[in-house]
Amino acid sequence: MNEVRRHGPIARFFLWLWDAMNFTRRLVFNLVFFGLLLIVLTMMFGGGGLRPLSDRTTLVVAPEGRLVEQFSSDTASRALARVLGDQRGEEVQLRDLLRALDAASKDKRIERVFLRFDRLEPTGYASLRELAAAIARVRASGKQVVSFGESYMQEQYLLAAQANEVYLDPMGGLVLEGLDRYRLYYRQGLQDKLGVDVHLFKVGEYKSAAEPYVLDAASPQAKEADLFWMNDVWQRYLGDVAKARDLSADKLAAGIDTMPEGIAAAGGDLARYALQQKLVDGLKTEEQVDDLLIDRGVADADAPGGFRQVSYDTYLRHVDDGIPSADPRPQVAVVVAEGEISGGEQPPGRIGGESTAALLREARDDDNVKALVLRVDSPGGEVFASEQIRREVVALKAAGKPVVVSMGDLAASGGYWISMDADRIYADPSTITGSIGIFGVIPTFPRALEKIGVHADGVGTTRFAGAFDVTRPLDPAVGDVVQSVIEKGYRDFTHGVAQARKRSVEQIDGIARGRVWTGAQARERGLVDDFGGLQNAVDDAAKRAKLGKPDTWRVRYIEREATPFERLFAGFVQSRAGAAWLHDSSFAQGMARAVVARSVPQMSADLQFLDAAMQRTPGAPVKALAYCFCEL
Fold first, then answer.
1. What secondary structure letter does DSSP report for 560?
2. Which CATH architecture has domain 331-454+469-560+618-627?
3. Is residue 207 annotated as a catalytic residue, yes or no?
4. How many Å apart are CA 532 and CA 596, to the nearest integer?
5. Do 525 and 501 touch, CB atoms closer than 8 A?
6. Fold exhibited by the domain 57-65+93-179+236-320
7. pLDDT for 320-369, tens place per residue?
8. Is 428 exposed, middle or buried (0-12, 13-18, 19+ CB in 10 A)?
9. How confident is the model at residue 596 (pLDDT cuts 50, 70, 90)?
10. Is 401 in the active site?
11. Residue of 143, 202, 207, 401 with catalytic role
12. Catalytic: which of 77, 406, 413, 419?
Protein backbone atom coordinates (compact mmCIF):
# COMPACT_ATOMS: atom_id res chain seq x y z
CA MET A 1 0.00 0.00 0.00
CA ASN A 2 1.40 3.36 -1.12
CA GLU A 3 1.68 6.11 1.47
CA VAL A 4 1.16 9.80 0.69
CA ARG A 5 4.47 11.57 0.88
CA ARG A 6 4.35 14.47 3.31
CA HIS A 7 6.69 17.46 3.08
CA GLY A 8 8.43 18.86 6.07
CA PRO A 9 7.70 22.38 7.39
CA ILE A 10 10.65 23.97 5.57
CA ALA A 11 9.68 22.40 2.26
CA ARG A 12 6.05 23.43 2.74
CA PHE A 13 7.15 27.05 3.33
CA PHE A 14 9.18 27.16 0.10
CA LEU A 15 6.34 25.52 -1.84
CA TRP A 16 3.91 28.14 -0.47
CA LEU A 17 6.39 30.90 -1.33
CA TRP A 18 6.75 29.55 -4.88
CA ASP A 19 2.94 29.44 -5.38
CA ALA A 20 2.60 33.00 -4.05
CA MET A 21 5.31 34.27 -6.41
CA ASN A 22 3.76 32.41 -9.33
CA PHE A 23 0.33 33.88 -8.58
CA THR A 24 1.77 37.39 -8.28
CA ARG A 25 3.63 36.97 -11.58
CA ARG A 26 0.43 35.94 -13.40
CA LEU A 27 -1.55 38.75 -11.79
CA VAL A 28 0.99 41.43 -12.74
CA PHE A 29 1.31 40.03 -16.26
CA ASN A 30 -2.48 40.08 -16.76
CA LEU A 31 -2.80 43.63 -15.44
CA VAL A 32 -0.02 44.86 -17.73
CA PHE A 33 -1.47 42.92 -20.68
CA PHE A 34 -4.99 44.31 -20.35
CA GLY A 35 -3.63 47.81 -19.69
CA LEU A 36 -1.58 47.70 -22.88
CA LEU A 37 -4.55 46.23 -24.76
CA LEU A 38 -6.73 49.13 -23.69
CA ILE A 39 -4.06 51.62 -24.78
CA VAL A 40 -3.71 49.92 -28.18
CA LEU A 41 -7.49 49.87 -28.71
CA THR A 42 -7.71 53.53 -27.81
CA MET A 43 -4.91 54.40 -30.24
CA MET A 44 -6.48 52.28 -32.98
CA PHE A 45 -10.06 53.41 -32.63
CA GLY A 46 -9.75 56.80 -30.97
CA GLY A 47 -10.28 58.53 -34.29
CA GLY A 48 -6.69 59.67 -34.78
CA GLY A 49 -7.47 63.22 -33.72
CA LEU A 50 -10.05 65.76 -34.82
CA ARG A 51 -11.22 66.21 -38.34
CA PRO A 52 -10.37 69.65 -39.69
CA LEU A 53 -13.17 72.17 -39.25
CA SER A 54 -14.42 73.36 -42.64
CA ASP A 55 -15.56 76.85 -43.57
CA ARG A 56 -19.28 77.67 -43.49
CA THR A 57 -19.90 75.26 -40.61
CA THR A 58 -22.97 75.54 -38.39
CA LEU A 59 -22.25 75.24 -34.67
CA VAL A 60 -25.02 73.17 -33.09
CA VAL A 61 -25.51 73.97 -29.41
CA ALA A 62 -27.94 71.36 -28.07
CA PRO A 63 -27.01 70.62 -24.45
CA GLU A 64 -28.94 67.96 -22.57
CA GLY A 65 -29.00 67.80 -18.79
CA ARG A 66 -28.71 70.02 -15.75
CA LEU A 67 -26.81 73.29 -16.08
CA VAL A 68 -24.03 73.28 -13.45
CA GLU A 69 -20.90 75.19 -12.51
CA GLN A 70 -18.91 71.99 -12.01
CA PHE A 71 -19.41 68.32 -12.90
CA SER A 72 -20.31 66.12 -9.95
CA SER A 73 -19.15 62.85 -11.56
CA ASP A 74 -15.83 61.74 -13.02
CA THR A 75 -14.80 61.87 -16.67
CA ALA A 76 -15.13 58.13 -17.31
CA SER A 77 -18.63 57.89 -15.81
CA ARG A 78 -19.87 60.82 -17.87
CA ALA A 79 -18.44 59.41 -21.08
CA LEU A 80 -19.92 55.98 -20.40
CA ALA A 81 -23.38 57.35 -19.63
CA ARG A 82 -23.32 59.56 -22.72
CA VAL A 83 -22.38 56.71 -25.06
CA LEU A 84 -25.12 54.48 -23.66
CA GLY A 85 -27.72 57.22 -23.98
CA ASP A 86 -28.44 57.24 -20.25
CA GLN A 87 -29.34 60.88 -19.59
CA ARG A 88 -30.31 60.51 -15.94
CA GLY A 89 -28.05 62.80 -14.00
CA GLU A 90 -26.56 64.31 -17.18
CA GLU A 91 -24.82 67.64 -16.52
CA VAL A 92 -23.70 70.55 -18.68
CA GLN A 93 -21.04 72.97 -17.46
CA LEU A 94 -21.94 76.63 -17.88
CA ARG A 95 -18.28 77.51 -18.54
CA ASP A 96 -18.17 75.10 -21.52
CA LEU A 97 -21.21 76.67 -23.18
CA LEU A 98 -19.81 80.15 -22.63
CA ARG A 99 -16.40 79.21 -24.09
CA ALA A 100 -17.97 77.63 -27.16
CA LEU A 101 -20.22 80.60 -27.87
CA ASP A 102 -17.53 83.21 -27.30
CA ALA A 103 -15.06 81.32 -29.52
CA ALA A 104 -17.70 80.94 -32.25
CA SER A 105 -18.37 84.68 -32.28
CA LYS A 106 -14.76 85.22 -33.47
CA ASP A 107 -14.29 82.04 -35.55
CA LYS A 108 -14.51 82.69 -39.31
CA ARG A 109 -15.18 79.00 -39.94
CA ILE A 110 -18.47 79.18 -38.02
CA GLU A 111 -21.14 80.63 -40.30
CA ARG A 112 -24.12 80.41 -37.94
CA VAL A 113 -25.20 78.96 -34.61
CA PHE A 114 -28.17 76.62 -34.21
CA LEU A 115 -29.66 76.44 -30.70
CA ARG A 116 -31.63 73.59 -29.13
CA PHE A 117 -32.24 74.38 -25.47
CA ASP A 118 -35.46 72.43 -24.93
CA ARG A 119 -33.54 69.57 -23.28
CA LEU A 120 -31.48 71.80 -21.00
CA GLU A 121 -32.45 71.79 -17.32
CA PRO A 122 -31.81 75.31 -15.98
CA THR A 123 -30.96 75.90 -12.33
CA GLY A 124 -31.38 79.67 -11.90
CA TYR A 125 -31.81 82.96 -13.68
CA ALA A 126 -28.34 84.39 -13.04
CA SER A 127 -26.61 81.62 -15.02
CA LEU A 128 -29.30 81.83 -17.71
CA ARG A 129 -28.73 85.57 -18.11
CA GLU A 130 -24.97 84.98 -18.38
CA LEU A 131 -25.60 82.40 -21.10
CA ALA A 132 -28.14 84.67 -22.82
CA ALA A 133 -25.55 87.46 -22.91
CA ALA A 134 -23.08 85.11 -24.66
CA ILE A 135 -25.71 84.28 -27.31
CA ALA A 136 -26.36 87.99 -27.77
CA ARG A 137 -22.62 88.52 -28.37
CA VAL A 138 -22.67 85.92 -31.15
CA ARG A 139 -25.62 87.68 -32.72
CA ALA A 140 -23.89 91.07 -32.38
CA SER A 141 -20.82 89.67 -34.16
CA GLY A 142 -22.92 89.39 -37.31
CA LYS A 143 -23.41 85.62 -37.25
CA GLN A 144 -26.92 84.32 -37.70
CA VAL A 145 -28.45 82.54 -34.70
CA VAL A 146 -31.40 80.19 -35.22
CA SER A 147 -33.31 78.50 -32.39
CA PHE A 148 -35.72 75.57 -32.49
CA GLY A 149 -37.61 73.71 -29.80
CA GLU A 150 -40.28 71.06 -29.64
CA SER A 151 -41.57 72.81 -26.49
CA TYR A 152 -40.08 75.42 -24.18
CA MET A 153 -40.17 76.02 -20.47
CA GLN A 154 -40.05 79.74 -19.71
CA GLU A 155 -36.47 79.39 -18.43
CA GLN A 156 -35.33 77.75 -21.68
CA TYR A 157 -37.18 80.36 -23.68
CA LEU A 158 -35.06 83.17 -22.21
CA LEU A 159 -32.12 81.61 -24.09
CA ALA A 160 -34.04 80.84 -27.29
CA ALA A 161 -35.38 84.40 -27.43
CA GLN A 162 -31.85 85.73 -28.02
CA ALA A 163 -31.76 84.19 -31.52
CA ASN A 164 -32.43 86.06 -34.78
CA GLU A 165 -35.15 83.53 -35.53
CA VAL A 166 -37.09 81.36 -33.06
CA TYR A 167 -39.05 78.35 -34.32
CA LEU A 168 -41.43 76.08 -32.43
CA ASP A 169 -42.85 72.70 -33.41
CA PRO A 170 -46.53 73.05 -34.50
CA MET A 171 -47.48 70.49 -31.84
CA GLY A 172 -45.32 72.13 -29.18
CA GLY A 173 -46.06 74.65 -26.48
CA LEU A 174 -44.70 77.77 -24.83
CA VAL A 175 -46.42 79.42 -21.89
CA LEU A 176 -45.03 82.25 -19.75
CA GLU A 177 -46.61 81.90 -16.32
CA GLY A 178 -44.46 83.75 -13.80
CA LEU A 179 -42.37 82.64 -10.81
CA ASP A 180 -43.55 80.61 -7.84
CA ARG A 181 -42.06 79.17 -4.70
CA TYR A 182 -44.13 76.63 -2.82
CA ARG A 183 -42.78 74.19 -0.24
CA LEU A 184 -44.02 71.24 1.75
CA TYR A 185 -44.72 71.84 5.46
CA TYR A 186 -44.35 68.96 7.90
CA ARG A 187 -45.41 70.21 11.34
CA GLN A 188 -48.67 68.30 11.49
CA GLY A 189 -47.17 65.16 10.02
CA LEU A 190 -44.08 65.21 12.24
CA GLN A 191 -45.59 66.46 15.50
CA ASP A 192 -49.27 65.45 15.50
CA LYS A 193 -49.05 62.23 13.48
CA LEU A 194 -45.60 60.89 14.29
CA GLY A 195 -44.97 62.56 17.66
CA VAL A 196 -41.66 64.13 16.59
CA ASP A 197 -41.08 67.49 18.29
CA VAL A 198 -38.84 69.83 16.28
CA HIS A 199 -37.30 72.66 18.31
CA LEU A 200 -36.19 75.65 16.21
CA PHE A 201 -33.65 78.21 17.37
CA LYS A 202 -32.88 81.17 15.13
CA VAL A 203 -32.13 84.88 14.90
CA GLY A 204 -34.02 86.98 12.37
CA GLU A 205 -37.72 87.01 11.61
CA TYR A 206 -36.98 86.43 7.91
CA LYS A 207 -34.83 83.33 8.46
CA SER A 208 -37.42 80.90 7.14
CA ALA A 209 -35.27 77.91 6.10
CA ALA A 210 -36.53 75.66 8.91
CA GLU A 211 -40.14 76.87 9.01
CA PRO A 212 -41.49 73.76 7.23
CA TYR A 213 -40.57 71.65 10.28
CA VAL A 214 -42.43 73.81 12.81
CA LEU A 215 -45.28 75.42 10.84
CA ASP A 216 -48.14 74.29 8.61
CA ALA A 217 -47.75 77.23 6.21
CA ALA A 218 -45.28 79.98 5.36
CA SER A 219 -45.03 82.82 7.86
CA PRO A 220 -46.14 86.32 6.78
CA GLN A 221 -42.51 87.46 6.97
CA ALA A 222 -41.39 84.65 4.65
CA LYS A 223 -44.09 85.47 2.11
CA GLU A 224 -43.24 89.18 2.23
CA ALA A 225 -39.54 88.61 1.68
CA ASP A 226 -39.99 85.97 -1.03
CA LEU A 227 -42.43 88.03 -3.04
CA PHE A 228 -40.13 91.06 -2.83
CA TRP A 229 -37.13 89.36 -4.48
CA MET A 230 -39.21 87.17 -6.81
CA ASN A 231 -40.98 90.18 -8.30
CA ASP A 232 -37.60 91.76 -8.97
CA VAL A 233 -36.37 88.63 -10.81
CA TRP A 234 -39.63 88.33 -12.78
CA GLN A 235 -39.70 91.94 -13.94
CA ARG A 236 -36.12 91.57 -15.13
CA TYR A 237 -37.09 88.39 -17.00
CA LEU A 238 -39.91 90.19 -18.79
CA GLY A 239 -37.54 93.03 -19.65
CA ASP A 240 -34.90 90.65 -21.02
CA VAL A 241 -37.40 88.80 -23.22
CA ALA A 242 -39.01 92.03 -24.39
CA LYS A 243 -35.63 93.48 -25.39
CA ALA A 244 -34.58 90.34 -27.28
CA ARG A 245 -37.92 90.03 -29.11
CA ASP A 246 -38.46 93.77 -29.64
CA LEU A 247 -41.67 93.65 -27.61
CA SER A 248 -43.11 95.56 -24.68
CA ALA A 249 -42.69 94.15 -21.17
CA ASP A 250 -46.15 95.47 -20.32
CA LYS A 251 -47.58 93.61 -23.31
CA LEU A 252 -45.93 90.40 -22.19
CA ALA A 253 -47.38 90.81 -18.69
CA ALA A 254 -50.82 91.57 -20.12
CA GLY A 255 -50.60 88.44 -22.26
CA ILE A 256 -50.11 86.35 -19.12
CA ASP A 257 -53.11 87.94 -17.39
CA THR A 258 -55.33 87.26 -20.40
CA MET A 259 -53.82 83.86 -21.19
CA PRO A 260 -57.04 81.78 -20.78
CA GLU A 261 -58.92 83.96 -23.26
CA GLY A 262 -55.97 84.06 -25.67
CA ILE A 263 -55.50 80.30 -25.71
CA ALA A 264 -59.23 79.74 -26.12
CA ALA A 265 -59.23 82.14 -29.08
CA ALA A 266 -56.36 80.11 -30.60
CA GLY A 267 -58.50 76.99 -30.32
CA GLY A 268 -56.41 75.58 -27.49
CA ASP A 269 -53.36 75.53 -29.76
CA LEU A 270 -50.41 76.56 -27.55
CA ALA A 271 -47.98 76.82 -30.47
CA ARG A 272 -50.33 79.03 -32.42
CA TYR A 273 -50.91 81.15 -29.31
CA ALA A 274 -47.13 81.63 -28.90
CA LEU A 275 -46.94 82.75 -32.54
CA GLN A 276 -49.80 85.22 -32.03
CA GLN A 277 -48.01 86.63 -28.99
CA LYS A 278 -44.89 87.10 -31.20
CA LEU A 279 -42.84 84.90 -28.89
CA VAL A 280 -41.75 82.83 -31.90
CA ASP A 281 -41.19 83.64 -35.57
CA GLY A 282 -42.72 80.54 -37.05
CA LEU A 283 -44.04 77.03 -36.51
CA LYS A 284 -41.83 74.38 -38.11
CA THR A 285 -41.04 70.74 -37.60
CA GLU A 286 -37.47 69.66 -36.94
CA GLU A 287 -37.19 68.41 -40.52
CA GLN A 288 -38.36 71.76 -41.88
CA VAL A 289 -35.76 73.58 -39.78
CA ASP A 290 -33.10 71.17 -41.06
CA ASP A 291 -34.16 72.00 -44.63
CA LEU A 292 -33.82 75.69 -43.83
CA LEU A 293 -30.29 75.17 -42.50
CA ILE A 294 -29.38 73.10 -45.58
CA ASP A 295 -30.54 75.92 -47.88
CA ARG A 296 -28.62 78.57 -45.94
CA GLY A 297 -25.51 76.50 -45.21
CA VAL A 298 -23.72 73.62 -46.88
CA ALA A 299 -25.42 70.30 -47.52
CA ASP A 300 -23.75 67.24 -46.00
CA ALA A 301 -25.56 63.96 -46.49
CA ASP A 302 -23.43 62.23 -43.84
CA ALA A 303 -24.22 64.76 -41.09
CA PRO A 304 -27.28 64.67 -38.81
CA GLY A 305 -29.94 66.91 -40.35
CA GLY A 306 -28.12 66.95 -43.68
CA PHE A 307 -26.12 70.16 -43.20
CA ARG A 308 -22.45 70.80 -42.39
CA GLN A 309 -22.20 71.12 -38.62
CA VAL A 310 -20.15 70.65 -35.48
CA SER A 311 -21.50 69.95 -31.99
CA TYR A 312 -20.52 72.32 -29.22
CA ASP A 313 -18.52 69.69 -27.28
CA THR A 314 -16.58 68.66 -30.40
CA TYR A 315 -16.07 72.33 -31.21
CA LEU A 316 -14.60 72.86 -27.75
CA ARG A 317 -12.02 70.19 -28.54
CA HIS A 318 -11.07 72.23 -31.62
CA VAL A 319 -10.79 75.35 -29.48
CA ASP A 320 -8.67 73.60 -26.85
CA ASP A 321 -6.52 71.78 -29.43
CA GLY A 322 -4.42 74.88 -30.02
CA ILE A 323 -3.76 75.56 -26.34
CA PRO A 324 -0.31 74.35 -25.21
CA SER A 325 -0.36 71.86 -22.33
CA ALA A 326 2.47 73.63 -20.52
CA ASP A 327 1.71 77.34 -20.38
CA PRO A 328 4.27 79.36 -18.41
CA ARG A 329 2.14 82.52 -18.18
CA PRO A 330 0.96 83.76 -14.75
CA GLN A 331 -2.46 82.51 -13.74
CA VAL A 332 -5.77 83.76 -12.46
CA ALA A 333 -7.07 80.70 -10.63
CA VAL A 334 -10.77 79.87 -10.40
CA VAL A 335 -12.14 77.72 -7.58
CA VAL A 336 -15.77 76.62 -7.89
CA ALA A 337 -17.82 76.45 -4.67
CA GLU A 338 -21.09 74.84 -5.75
CA GLY A 339 -23.69 73.06 -3.62
CA GLU A 340 -24.33 72.74 0.08
CA ILE A 341 -21.55 73.50 2.54
CA SER A 342 -20.66 70.56 4.75
CA GLY A 343 -17.79 69.64 7.00
CA GLY A 344 -14.79 67.59 5.94
CA GLU A 345 -13.98 66.30 2.46
CA GLN A 346 -16.79 66.56 -0.10
CA PRO A 347 -16.93 65.48 -3.77
CA PRO A 348 -17.37 67.94 -6.68
CA GLY A 349 -20.86 69.41 -6.70
CA ARG A 350 -20.67 69.95 -2.93
CA ILE A 351 -18.58 72.28 -0.81
CA GLY A 352 -16.43 70.76 1.91
CA GLY A 353 -14.95 72.76 4.74
CA GLU A 354 -11.69 70.88 4.29
CA SER A 355 -11.76 70.01 0.58
CA THR A 356 -12.68 73.49 -0.69
CA ALA A 357 -10.27 75.11 1.77
CA ALA A 358 -7.56 72.80 0.40
CA LEU A 359 -8.18 74.04 -3.14
CA LEU A 360 -7.82 77.64 -1.96
CA ARG A 361 -4.66 76.70 -0.09
CA GLU A 362 -3.28 75.13 -3.26
CA ALA A 363 -3.80 78.46 -5.03
CA ARG A 364 -2.08 80.30 -2.19
CA ASP A 365 0.96 78.00 -2.28
CA ASP A 366 1.32 78.04 -6.08
CA ASP A 367 3.71 80.80 -7.14
CA ASN A 368 2.23 80.81 -10.65
CA VAL A 369 -1.18 81.84 -9.28
CA LYS A 370 -1.28 85.60 -8.92
CA ALA A 371 -5.00 86.13 -8.19
CA LEU A 372 -8.08 84.04 -7.50
CA VAL A 373 -11.76 84.08 -8.43
CA LEU A 374 -14.12 82.19 -6.14
CA ARG A 375 -17.20 81.22 -8.13
CA VAL A 376 -20.01 80.71 -5.60
CA ASP A 377 -23.30 78.93 -6.23
CA SER A 378 -24.49 77.78 -2.83
CA PRO A 379 -27.46 77.98 -0.45
CA GLY A 380 -25.04 77.68 2.48
CA GLY A 381 -24.85 75.01 5.14
CA GLU A 382 -22.70 74.45 8.21
CA VAL A 383 -21.28 77.56 9.88
CA PHE A 384 -17.93 76.05 10.89
CA ALA A 385 -17.27 74.68 7.40
CA SER A 386 -18.13 78.09 5.96
CA GLU A 387 -15.69 79.71 8.36
CA GLN A 388 -12.90 77.29 7.34
CA ILE A 389 -13.31 78.45 3.73
CA ARG A 390 -13.54 82.14 4.67
CA ARG A 391 -10.25 81.90 6.57
CA GLU A 392 -8.51 80.64 3.44
CA VAL A 393 -9.89 83.61 1.49
CA VAL A 394 -8.37 85.92 4.12
CA ALA A 395 -5.08 83.99 3.97
CA LEU A 396 -4.92 84.41 0.19
CA LYS A 397 -5.33 88.16 0.54
CA ALA A 398 -2.68 88.24 3.28
CA ALA A 399 -0.33 86.46 0.87
CA GLY A 400 -0.75 89.34 -1.57
CA LYS A 401 -3.11 87.52 -3.95
CA PRO A 402 -6.32 89.40 -4.76
CA VAL A 403 -9.58 87.48 -4.34
CA VAL A 404 -12.69 88.33 -6.33
CA VAL A 405 -16.02 86.57 -5.86
CA SER A 406 -18.32 85.80 -8.77
CA MET A 407 -21.79 84.87 -7.56
CA GLY A 408 -23.80 82.49 -9.72
CA ASP A 409 -27.49 81.70 -9.31
CA LEU A 410 -27.32 81.55 -5.53
CA ALA A 411 -24.88 82.78 -2.89
CA ALA A 412 -27.00 83.00 0.23
CA SER A 413 -26.43 82.47 3.93
CA GLY A 414 -23.26 80.35 4.19
CA GLY A 415 -22.73 81.13 0.51
CA TYR A 416 -22.47 84.79 1.49
CA TRP A 417 -20.30 83.94 4.51
CA ILE A 418 -17.55 82.51 2.27
CA SER A 419 -17.88 85.50 -0.09
CA MET A 420 -17.91 88.48 2.24
CA ASP A 421 -14.15 88.99 2.67
CA ALA A 422 -13.32 89.14 -1.04
CA ASP A 423 -11.71 92.27 -2.47
CA ARG A 424 -14.74 92.65 -4.72
CA ILE A 425 -18.05 90.82 -5.17
CA TYR A 426 -19.74 90.49 -8.56
CA ALA A 427 -23.30 89.25 -9.00
CA ASP A 428 -25.95 89.16 -11.65
CA PRO A 429 -28.96 91.37 -10.86
CA SER A 430 -31.00 88.13 -10.63
CA THR A 431 -28.56 86.32 -8.33
CA ILE A 432 -30.15 85.27 -5.02
CA THR A 433 -28.00 86.31 -2.07
CA GLY A 434 -28.12 87.68 1.47
CA SER A 435 -30.03 85.51 3.96
CA ILE A 436 -27.58 86.62 6.66
CA GLY A 437 -28.82 84.62 9.62
CA ILE A 438 -28.22 81.53 11.73
CA PHE A 439 -30.50 78.76 12.94
CA GLY A 440 -30.40 75.36 14.54
CA VAL A 441 -32.95 72.58 14.86
CA ILE A 442 -33.16 69.77 17.43
CA PRO A 443 -35.77 67.06 16.86
CA THR A 444 -36.78 64.95 19.88
CA PHE A 445 -38.66 61.64 19.71
CA PRO A 446 -40.08 60.66 23.13
CA ARG A 447 -43.71 61.03 22.00
CA ALA A 448 -42.98 59.08 18.81
CA LEU A 449 -41.46 56.26 20.87
CA GLU A 450 -44.44 56.25 23.22
CA LYS A 451 -46.73 55.56 20.27
CA ILE A 452 -45.01 52.18 19.85
CA GLY A 453 -44.64 51.49 23.56
CA VAL A 454 -40.96 52.44 23.93
CA HIS A 455 -39.70 54.64 26.77
CA ALA A 456 -36.28 56.08 27.65
CA ASP A 457 -35.03 56.12 31.25
CA GLY A 458 -31.75 56.18 33.15
CA VAL A 459 -29.48 58.37 35.24
CA GLY A 460 -26.82 61.05 34.72
CA THR A 461 -24.14 62.54 36.95
CA THR A 462 -25.21 66.17 36.33
CA ARG A 463 -28.31 68.12 35.42
CA PHE A 464 -27.27 68.31 31.80
CA ALA A 465 -25.80 64.84 31.29
CA GLY A 466 -27.76 63.34 28.42
CA ALA A 467 -29.70 66.58 27.94
CA PHE A 468 -29.22 66.39 24.16
CA ASP A 469 -30.43 62.79 23.87
CA VAL A 470 -33.14 62.93 21.20
CA THR A 471 -35.12 60.17 22.96
CA ARG A 472 -35.79 62.55 25.90
CA PRO A 473 -37.85 65.76 26.09
CA LEU A 474 -35.80 68.95 25.63
CA ASP A 475 -35.20 70.78 28.90
CA PRO A 476 -36.15 74.51 28.52
CA ALA A 477 -32.82 75.40 30.16
CA VAL A 478 -31.06 73.49 27.41
CA GLY A 479 -33.10 75.46 24.90
CA ASP A 480 -31.72 78.65 26.47
CA VAL A 481 -28.19 77.35 25.97
CA VAL A 482 -28.84 76.55 22.33
CA GLN A 483 -30.44 79.94 21.68
CA SER A 484 -27.37 81.63 23.17
CA VAL A 485 -25.14 79.66 20.79
CA ILE A 486 -27.29 80.66 17.80
CA GLU A 487 -27.28 84.33 18.82
CA LYS A 488 -23.49 84.22 19.14
CA GLY A 489 -23.31 82.78 15.63
CA TYR A 490 -25.49 85.60 14.32
CA ARG A 491 -23.25 88.18 16.01
CA ASP A 492 -20.20 86.57 14.42
CA PHE A 493 -21.92 86.69 11.01
CA THR A 494 -23.06 90.31 11.19
CA HIS A 495 -19.78 91.53 12.72
CA GLY A 496 -17.87 89.72 9.99
CA VAL A 497 -20.00 91.27 7.24
CA ALA A 498 -19.72 94.70 8.85
CA GLN A 499 -15.93 94.47 8.97
CA ALA A 500 -15.62 93.08 5.44
CA ARG A 501 -18.05 95.56 3.89
CA LYS A 502 -16.83 98.51 6.01
CA ARG A 503 -20.25 99.17 7.50
CA SER A 504 -21.54 99.38 11.05
CA VAL A 505 -23.02 96.31 12.72
CA GLU A 506 -26.32 98.19 13.06
CA GLN A 507 -26.40 98.85 9.32
CA ILE A 508 -25.77 95.19 8.54
CA ASP A 509 -28.36 94.03 11.07
CA GLY A 510 -30.91 96.24 9.34
CA ILE A 511 -30.48 94.33 6.05
CA ALA A 512 -29.72 90.94 7.59
CA ARG A 513 -32.06 89.05 9.95
CA GLY A 514 -32.24 86.23 7.43
CA ARG A 515 -33.73 88.29 4.62
CA VAL A 516 -33.06 87.25 1.02
CA TRP A 517 -32.19 89.78 -1.71
CA THR A 518 -31.62 89.69 -5.43
CA GLY A 519 -28.25 90.81 -6.72
CA ALA A 520 -29.74 94.17 -7.68
CA GLN A 521 -31.30 94.65 -4.25
CA ALA A 522 -28.08 93.51 -2.55
CA ARG A 523 -26.02 96.05 -4.51
CA GLU A 524 -28.35 98.83 -3.40
CA ARG A 525 -27.72 97.72 0.20
CA GLY A 526 -23.95 97.39 -0.08
CA LEU A 527 -23.72 93.60 0.03
CA VAL A 528 -22.55 93.36 -3.60
CA ASP A 529 -20.07 95.66 -5.35
CA ASP A 530 -20.91 95.38 -9.03
CA PHE A 531 -22.89 93.53 -11.69
CA GLY A 532 -21.18 91.05 -13.97
CA GLY A 533 -20.49 87.44 -14.73
CA LEU A 534 -17.48 85.20 -14.29
CA GLN A 535 -15.44 86.93 -17.01
CA ASN A 536 -15.90 90.31 -15.32
CA ALA A 537 -14.59 88.83 -12.08
CA VAL A 538 -11.60 87.23 -13.83
CA ASP A 539 -10.71 90.49 -15.57
CA ASP A 540 -10.98 92.38 -12.27
CA ALA A 541 -8.75 89.87 -10.47
CA ALA A 542 -6.10 90.13 -13.23
CA LYS A 543 -6.22 93.91 -13.05
CA ARG A 544 -5.78 93.88 -9.27
CA ALA A 545 -2.76 91.58 -9.67
CA LYS A 546 -1.38 93.92 -12.37
CA LEU A 547 -1.03 91.11 -14.90
CA GLY A 548 -1.25 93.35 -17.94
CA LYS A 549 -3.03 92.59 -21.21
CA PRO A 550 -5.25 89.48 -21.48
CA ASP A 551 -2.76 87.59 -23.67
CA THR A 552 -0.05 87.85 -21.00
CA TRP A 553 -1.90 85.68 -18.45
CA ARG A 554 -4.24 82.71 -18.44
CA VAL A 555 -7.15 81.26 -16.46
CA ARG A 556 -6.76 77.96 -14.63
CA TYR A 557 -9.47 76.04 -12.78
CA ILE A 558 -8.21 74.42 -9.60
CA GLU A 559 -10.23 71.26 -9.06
CA ARG A 560 -9.88 67.53 -8.93
CA GLU A 561 -8.21 66.39 -12.15
CA ALA A 562 -9.13 63.24 -14.01
CA THR A 563 -6.76 60.34 -13.43
CA PRO A 564 -4.80 58.95 -16.42
CA PHE A 565 -7.07 55.88 -16.44
CA GLU A 566 -10.23 58.04 -16.47
CA ARG A 567 -8.90 60.06 -19.41
CA LEU A 568 -7.87 56.88 -21.22
CA PHE A 569 -11.20 55.17 -20.63
CA ALA A 570 -13.15 58.28 -21.64
CA GLY A 571 -11.19 58.45 -24.90
CA PHE A 572 -11.92 54.79 -25.59
CA VAL A 573 -15.69 54.95 -24.99
CA GLN A 574 -15.94 58.09 -27.12
CA SER A 575 -14.24 56.35 -30.04
CA ARG A 576 -16.39 54.68 -32.71
CA ALA A 577 -15.31 51.17 -31.80
CA GLY A 578 -15.68 51.76 -28.08
CA ALA A 579 -19.09 53.33 -28.48
CA ALA A 580 -20.31 50.45 -30.66
CA TRP A 581 -19.09 47.81 -28.21
CA LEU A 582 -20.44 49.54 -25.13
CA HIS A 583 -23.80 50.31 -26.67
CA ASP A 584 -24.45 46.59 -27.10
CA SER A 585 -22.93 45.52 -23.80
CA SER A 586 -25.47 44.69 -21.11
CA PHE A 587 -22.63 44.71 -18.57
CA ALA A 588 -21.69 48.27 -19.49
CA GLN A 589 -25.32 49.39 -19.43
CA GLY A 590 -25.73 48.03 -15.92
CA MET A 591 -22.51 49.76 -14.92
CA ALA A 592 -23.77 53.07 -16.29
CA ARG A 593 -27.01 52.79 -14.37
CA ALA A 594 -24.96 52.33 -11.22
CA VAL A 595 -22.84 55.45 -11.69
CA VAL A 596 -25.42 57.94 -12.93
CA ALA A 597 -26.97 59.93 -10.12
CA ARG A 598 -30.71 59.99 -9.57
CA SER A 599 -32.76 62.98 -8.54
CA VAL A 600 -34.21 63.13 -5.04
CA PRO A 601 -37.77 64.34 -4.41
CA GLN A 602 -38.27 67.44 -2.29
CA MET A 603 -39.64 65.56 0.70
CA SER A 604 -36.71 63.18 0.82
CA ALA A 605 -34.24 66.07 0.48
CA ASP A 606 -35.94 68.07 3.25
CA LEU A 607 -35.96 65.14 5.65
CA GLN A 608 -32.34 64.33 4.83
CA PHE A 609 -31.51 67.92 5.71
CA LEU A 610 -33.26 67.47 9.07
CA ASP A 611 -31.35 64.25 9.65
CA ALA A 612 -28.04 65.98 8.86
CA ALA A 613 -28.93 68.79 11.27
CA MET A 614 -29.28 66.19 14.04
CA GLN A 615 -25.64 65.15 13.73
CA ARG A 616 -23.99 66.98 16.62
CA THR A 617 -20.63 68.67 16.32
CA PRO A 618 -18.20 67.52 19.03
CA GLY A 619 -18.10 70.03 21.85
CA ALA A 620 -21.17 71.96 20.67
CA PRO A 621 -24.79 71.54 21.82
CA VAL A 622 -26.18 72.16 18.34
CA LYS A 623 -24.87 72.38 14.78
CA ALA A 624 -25.21 76.04 13.79
CA LEU A 625 -26.49 76.37 10.23
CA ALA A 626 -26.33 79.24 7.76
CA TYR A 627 -28.63 77.83 5.07
CA CYS A 628 -31.27 79.21 2.74
CA PHE A 629 -34.07 77.29 1.00
CA CYS A 630 -34.35 80.08 -1.55
CA GLU A 631 -33.93 78.41 -4.93
CA LEU A 632 -36.74 78.93 -7.42
1. P
2. Alpha-Beta Complex (3.90)
3. yes
4. 33
5. no
6. 2-enoyl-CoA Hydratase; Chain A, domain 1 (3.90.226)
7. 886 666 788 999 999 999 999 999 999 888 899 999 999 999 999 999 99
8. buried
9. very low
10. no
11. 207
12. 413
